[in-house]
Design brief:
With 66 residues, this protein is mainly alpha-helical. Helices cover 35% and strands 0% of the residues. It contains three helices and no strands. It is globular and about 30 Å long.
Length: 66
């Protein structure tokens, strides 16, 4: 996604099993490589982690708080 991934749009690099198709490749965006999971982010379930990531995406959407 050369112009970035818009909020709410599935990344084109996600596989059918939600893995990253370019994990470990030099072409992987710096943001993705720099995102470090934490206990707060992951919680105790996959659902918690997905909710956390969704909240982060919404909070960082340009114009979200204008």
């Amino acid at each position: 996604m050369p112009n970035g991934k818009p909020a709410g749009v599935r990344c084109v690099q996600l596989t059918d099993t939600n893995g990253c198709a370019i994990f470990g490749h030099p072409s992987r965006p710096a943001f993705c490589a720099g995102l470090q999971a934490s206990a707060d982010m992951c919680g105790t379930s996959r659902e918690h982690a997905l909710q956390w990531l969704g909240d982060l995406e919404r909070a960082t959407t340009p114009g979200a708080f204008e």
